[in-house]
Design goal:
By secondary structure, the protein is α+β, with helices and mostly antiparallel strands. It has 11 helices and 14 strands. Helix 1 runs parallel beside helix 2, helix 5 crosses helix 8 and helix 10 packs antiparallel against helix 11. The longest helix has 18 residues.
């Protein structure tokens, strides 16, 4: 967790995860909806007000381990371009030298203040930190740390995690008994093959081959080769290759109760842990952490580029909820904080 957060005021955030569709550059942009507002009048800087803004930004930067500094103050007039993207208005702000663009809505000072306040303490949840009985478990059930992945088989970021980090994670933590791993289905509605794939994995589980199906669904996909993207044919091929009884497999996939069970599992993820995208990970210690350990978690998250938060369950267990195709070093830091 050594990378620093990028200020939303100054750059476009690149979200490393699948979420519900959002507005942004590059999709269905209507140039006919462009507007330009430009002024050249100068104005006097209110020293008291700008002083307050600087103090707020200093607090934000301090969360990233950066010292306070006196910023250079300049008055400029931005050129605002407004586009219609998927029926919504998206603003682009161009600097007067025409060399830089700020994308999206400006971040208010109040939003930064709120972020600073929330980042200084963990979030208390109304539910315990626990694996749902309908999720699938891998590894030592007595492990001191639990990692739950909320995943979608068609999400490209889930595929990236599976193909770039998953094997190393299993060898380092699950196979050694240090971590209990669980997969919690979270098929997103705009991924047409996500639910069929989740159903296929559940039906493979009924024949004792859940993890064989789970792993193959991810590892046999290609993000570059369209002929190897998730499809019905790929699911059928995997089922045959891992030796499933195809008659029983197909009958199970037609059982509407399997789909209903997955939908209910997804709803519990949303309600209990506010999961909204994939992959999302809930990582927690099965033992109560000391106040010092919890503060170490908070501090590390404040200083990281990882999207997430420290949480305390209603059972007193402490953990983190993080999003994105996490590299192994992120798990290293979290496990170290919870074990130290």
């Amino acid at each position: 967790m050594k990378q620093y957060l990028v200020l939303g005021l100054l750059a476009v955030l690149l979200f490393a995860g699948c979420t519900t569709p959002s507005t942004g550059p590059g999709a269905n942009v209507s140039n006919s909806a462009m507007h330009m507002n430009q002024t050249t009048s100068s104005f006097q800087v209110d020293q008291a007000k700008i002083g307050h803004v600087i103090s707020v930004i200093d607090k934000f930067l301090s969360l990233q381990g950066l010292p306070p500094q006196q910023p250079k103050i300049e008055t400029t007039q931005l050129i605002k371009l407004t586009y219609t993207v998927q029926g919504q208005q998206v603003a682009f702000y161009v600097t007067p030298d025409y060399q830089n663009v700020v994308v999206g809505k400006p971040t208010s000072v109040a939003q930064i203040e709120q972020f600073v306040e929330q980042s200084s303490k963990p979030t208390n949840l109304s539910v315990p930190l626990a694996i749902d009985s309908a999720a699938h478990i891998r590894g030592n059930k007595s492990a001191p740390i639990v990692v739950i992945e909320f995943g979608d088989y068609q999400c490209p970021y889930c595929v990236l995690f599976a193909q770039q980090t998953y094997e190393a994670f299993l060898k380092k933590y699950v196979d050694t008994g240090k971590v209990e791993f669980a997969f919690w289905d979270f098929p997103l509605p705009f991924h047409q093959m996500a639910m069929p794939a989740s159903i296929a994995a559940e039906c493979a589980a009924k024949q004792g081959k859940y993890w064989e199906m789970h792993d193959a669904l991810y590892l046999n996909q290609s993000l570059q080769d369209k002929s190897k993207q998730l499809s019905e044919q790929l699911i059928q091929n995997i089922a045959k290759n891992i030796g499933l009884n195809m008659t029983a497999f197909d009958a199970c996939r037609n059982d509407t109760s399997v789909r209903s069970g997955i939908s209910a599992l997804e709803s519990r993820a949303q309600q209990n842990y506010q999961v909204g995208g994939t992959p999302t990970f809930l990582i927690y210690s099965t033992k109560k952490l000391s106040d010092a350990q919890i503060q170490k978690l908070v501090k590390d998250f404040q200083a990281s580029a990882v999207r997430g938060k420290v949480v305390i369950g209603s059972d007193g267990k402490a953990g983190v909820i993080v999003s994105g195709a996490l590299p192994i070093n992120v798990f290293d830091q979290i496990v170290a904080d919870m074990s130290g």
